[in-house]
From TrEMBL:
Residue ranges, compositional bias (Gly residues): 688-700
Organism field: Zosterops lateralis melanops
Domain Cadherin positions: 78-158, 159-267, 268-382, 383-487, 487-604
Stretch forming the signal peptide: 1-26
Keyword annotations of the record: Calcium, Cell adhesion, Cell membrane, Cleavage on pair of basic residues, Glycoprotein, Membrane, Metal-binding, Repeat, Signal, Transmembrane, Transmembrane helix
Function statement: Cadherins are calcium-dependent cell adhesion proteins. They preferentially interact with themselves in a homophilic manner in connecting cells; cadherins may thus contribute to the sorting of heterogeneous cell types. PB-cadherins may have a role in the morphological organization of pituitary gland and brain tissues.
Superkingdom as given in the UniProt entry: Eukaryota
Protein name, per record: Cadherin-22
Principal subcellular localisation of the protein: membrane
One protein family per Pfam: CADH_Y-type_LIR
Length: 805
């Protein structure tokens, strides 16, 4: 069959080429004009009528030619061509010289390559006729087109695949699912090569397709997602309008069946059992149950509810939005002793019901939940739960305020003991009988101090104090009339000297710390000691206030400047209590309008005393000044003690320097010369040097001889400091070996006195002569101020001479 189709196609191709060749010759026409120029040329019009220069037409070439010889396309010819070969035909443009070749003598055009219309539908070329000898154009260049003739060589293709569509389950027959479309690359204007029709290859039991539009529709009305949720449908597209020999292509369409709410919820079990302890607090979850639904998505959303009256009162059902489970919780406290088992009817129903499927049945289901209550050891319970008691404030210590009662709710009914939480009654104002629960007063009560008391009473099992119940108790202290009324403030009033009788001076009010249930009622009158008063009168206004008026004409503050008016105030009881307050009335001078101008020395003026705030500020300032003075004194004392401690330091390695010339003979007690003598032990120097006799430097030498041995400083050009070095080393060794003294490791620098002093130095440094070699007689010529010093050294020299002799 394929070979016959091929022969048919080639026959049609040859027939088409023959018709094309005849058409090109039939199109030879003539035009008026002398030459081969373009129509309308002025030169041609002036010469008269001539034949048209070109004899040719647009050409057609069949695509996909598979022959071995070049395919003949057409022929171009000029009227001036006499067949002698003097004219050369050439072409230029798209494909000229490569795809299309022209015979220069005959003008025949052949296609040398296989053409594809789907890649390029036509080629534009230009033709020239030239003189072969001179290569000049004999005719103007003209443009022509070679069109590629289509054949049915492209099958339809589904370019938008893969296709995925959806349709709701239980949709009626003919419901549109989606549309598919195939594309054919052949020429839609030529023949039926691009005319496509559609058909179903697989899945025709459930779906159909429109042959022209490609719209896929349902073929049945009982699509059930719960049975099969997707279908694979193969759609075929055929060109040539489905005729024999047409090419075809196919695609697979995935059709998803979407869910509708066509399945009601169903509980897997008709009864569920749970247990919970009786002490579980309200809101405790007992358990979860769930109704199954074959649908998906929001069609499985459910709500649960309790249907029986008993369950509604004791339990609550909520829906977990994540798991679609019914959560059963405690709504009221449970009591094992009252009821051991509760039965609850739980109903599940879809939240979203599709009215199209209500005829399928009710979309709800019910199940029974049995809740068993477990017994536990519970603390006592207060009965009745009243938390208010009252007691008179004048009740004696030990009076009963009230009785609290608590019972053990368990079957065992253990005895109960009572106590008061002392953190709520730290002052132990109340006590409680541990066995009876009677609350009594422990101290004297005072309503004015504390009108309410809030205490916590504890009830516990006698043999198990860990089972404790607490009850808050409010005790109200009832008032008794135990406080007399008092004037609201120490009243002071002023009256003008020219006051007239009946003039209002002051309005009096009182306060009472008691609070009678019927309210306060006070009575005012003058005290008995004011019965002889003829200056002022007191009027009870009957609204718990009283008014004081003048009774005479004019006052004289020279005679009496202050009046003290005692006022008696009585309350309504019972019992009636009273108190006396004093109203101080000052006589003052007033102007013509009654404004007070001046009073006596204790008159009705602003007191000269300072206000409490000013007194406090003054005291703070005084306190700050005292602190500053004490601080300064402390610093000074600390400074003096520091200087004293510095003066008290050991002077063994220090140089004592006196910048005072001394007080002469009268100043013998100003300095302690022993301190100077103890600073230097020149006997050690002499002993180390070996220059003294056997008695010098020994332990028997007295301080006077040491002082007398002080040599005189003589400046020498060649100083030997080895003596100082040896001396310091010996001192260091002594300090290191003596463990009873602090480590005096300081190094002292002794500066030279200089050479410009008119008086020779008394320093013993840099001299190694013994005391017997020194002559201190020159000290006598230094004047009265050094007489004591001269006598001291001269005396020592005399003693040494006597000892030597």
């Amino acid at each position: 069959m394929a070979k016959g189709l091929q022969d048919f196609l080639w026959t049609m191709l040859l027939l088409f080429c023959a018709i094309q060749e005849l058409g090109s010759w039939a199109m030879h026409t003539e035009v008026e004009g002398p030459g081969l120029g373009e129509p309308g040329d002025p030169a041609l019009l002036a010469s008269g009528r001539v034949k048209r220069g070109w004899v040719w037409n647009q050409f057609f070439v069949v695509e996909e030619y598979t022959g071995t010889e070049p395919l003949y396309v057409g022929k171009i010819h000029s009227d001036s061509d006499e067949g002698d070969g003097s004219i050369k035909y050439t072409i230029s443009g798209e494909g000229a010289g490569t795809i299309f070749l022209i015979d220069e003598i005959t003008g025949d055009i052949h296609a040398t390559e296989r053409l594809d219309r789907e890649q390029k539908t036509f080629y534009t070329l230009r033709a020239q006729a030239r003189d072969r000898q001179t290569d000049q154009l004999l005719e103007p260049e003209s443009e022509f087109i070679i069109k590629v003739q289509d054949i049915n060589d492209s099958e339809p293709r589904f370019l938008e695949g893969p296709y995925i569509g959806s349709v709701a389950e239980l949709s009626p027959v003919g419901t549109s699912v989606m549309q598919v479309m195939a594309s054919d690359a052949d020429d839609p204007t030529y023949g039926s090569s691009a005319r496509v029709v559609y058909s179903v290859l697989e899945g025709e039991q459930h779906f159909t397709v429109d042959s022209k539009t490609g719209v896929i529709r349902t073929a049945v009305a009982d699509l059930d997602r719960e049975t099969q949720d997707r279908y694979e449908v193969v759609i075929r597209a055929t060109d040539m309008a489905g005729q024999l020999g047409g090419l075809s292509g196919s695609t697979t369409v995935t059709i998803v069946v979407t869910d509708v709410n066509d399945n009601p919820p169903r509980f897997p079990q008709k009864m569920y059992q749970f247990s919970i302890v009786e002490t579980a607090p309200v809101g405790t979850a007992i358990g979860r149950v769930k109704a199954e639904d074959s649908d998906v998505g929001e069609n499985t959303d459910m709500t649960y509810q309790v249907k029986d009256e008993e369950g509604v009162e004791m339990f609550k059902v909520t829906t977990d939005s994540n798991t679609q489970e019914a959560v059963i919780t405690v709504q009221k406290p449970l009591d094992y002793e009252s009821k051991k088992v509760h039965t609850v009817v739980v109903e599940a129903l879809n939240k979203f019901v599709d009215p199209r499927f209500v005829d399928l049945g009710t979309f709800r289901d019910q199940t029974i939940v049995r809740v068993s209550v477990l017994d536990v050891d519970e603390p006592p319970e207060f009965r009745p739960p009243s938390n208010l008691m009252e007691v008179q404030e004048d009740a004696h210590v030990g009076s009963i305020v009230g009785v609290v009662t608590a019972l053990d709710p368990d079957t065992a009914n253990h005895p109960v003991r009572y106590a008061i939480d002392r953190s709520t009654d730290a002052e132990r104002i109340f006590d409680i009988d541990a066995k009876t629960g009677a609350i009594v007063t422990g101290k004297v009560l005072d309503r004015e101090t504390a009108g309410w008391h809030n205490i916590t009473v504890l009830a516990m099992e006698a043999d198990n104090h860990s089972q404790v119940s607490r009850a808050s108790l409010r005790i109200r202290i009832l008032d008794v009339n135990d406080n007399p009324p008092e004037l609201a403030t120490p009243y002071e009033a002023a009256v003008c000297e020219d006051a007239k009788p009946g003039q209002l001076i002051q309005t009096i009010s009182v306060v009472d710390r008691d609070e009678p249930q019927s309210g306060h009622r006070f009575y005012f009158t003058l005290a008995p000691e004011a019965t002889n008063n003829h200056h002022f009168s007191l009027l009870d206004i009957q609204d718990n206030t009283a008014a004081v008026h003048t009774q005479r004409v004019g006052f004289n503050r020279q005679e009496q400047d202050v009046f003290l008016l005692p006022i008696l105030v009585v309350d309504s009881g019972p019992p009636a209590l009273s108190s006396t307050g004093t109203l101080t009335i000052r006589v003052c001078g007033c102007d013509s309008n009654g404004a007070i101008q001046s009073c006596n020395s204790t008159a009705y003026v602003v007191s000269a005393t300072l206000s409490p705030g000013a007194l406090i500020a003054l005291l703070v300032c005084v306190l700050i000044l005292v602190v500053l003075v004490l601080l300064i004194l402390t610093l000074k004392r600390h400074h003096k003690s520091h200087l004293t401690s510095e003066d008290d330091e050991d002077m063994r390695d220090n140089v004592i320097k006196y910048n005072d010339e001394g007080g002469g003979e009268q100043d013998t007690e100003a300095y302690d010369m022993s301190a100077l003598r103890s600073l230097y032990d020149f006997s050690e120097i002499k002993a180390g040097d070996g220059g003294g006799g056997p008695g010098e430097g020994g332990p028997g030498r007295n301080p006077a001889s040491e002082l007398h041995a002080l040599p005189q400083w003589v400046q020498s050009p060649d100083l030997d400091f080895s003596v100082f070095r040896d001396y310091i080393c010996r001192k260091v060794e002594q300090a290191d070996e003596d463990l009873s003294v602090p480590p005096y490791d300081s190094f002292q620098t002794y500066a030279f006195e200089g050479s410009d002093s008119p008086v020779p130095s008394l320093s013993s440094i840099n001299t190694w002569s013994s005391g017997s070699e020194q002559d201190f007689s020159y000290l006598g010529g230094w004047g009265p101020r050094f007489r004591q010093l001269a006598a001291l050294y001269a005396g020592r020299r005399g003693e040494e001479d006597s000892e030597e002799s």
